Amino acid sequence: MSQFFQIHQENPQARLIRQVVEIVRSGGVIVYPTDSAYALGCMLGNKDAVARMRMIRDLDKDHNFTLVCRDLSDISTYAKVDNTAYRVLKNHTPGAYTFILQGTKEVPKRFLHAKRKTIGLRIPEHPVAQALLAELGEPMLSSSLILPGDEFPMIDPYEIRQMLEKQVDLVIDGGYCGMELTTVIDMVDDVPVLLREGKGDPSNFTSLD
Question: Is residue 71 situated within a structural domain?
Fold first, then answer.
């Protein structure tokens, strides 16, 4: 049976945030709010928790998860960021964007794109997610909470609890998040390329089309 925390979406309670981090560090899978939609999260290095996230979403072994980071220093640890990429990231984070970058050796090979050796990273602009990442002290491996057969993410934390109470360790009620996914930007080459239009303003990026 999963736990259920009601955490204030603007002023997260420090006591509850510490409890969330204890659950994550002990191998738990959590549902937490972001600036785009609710997401699943776990520790990067916990294989069992990652396997559970794959099972919940019915994902194959080639699915590319996202590293959710607190700030640019986290991103520079896990991805190769040149001056051009840094300027783009600085101007668009925190925000509802996922950036595809070349991964560093800090990222386990199983989470890198098999051919391109890339990883998706983002810095969410949500007080609960930011407080959680600050207390954790490292990025979380994450995936949007879209259940098998659904087109959009789940938005109601009470419904999430009902659906997943035996599959996750904790559901955070952090208020309404919405159903829009992040805007995805490929930063591997010199010119940033828009791969998916989502909540983040895509107007500054060139479309793949």
Answer: yes
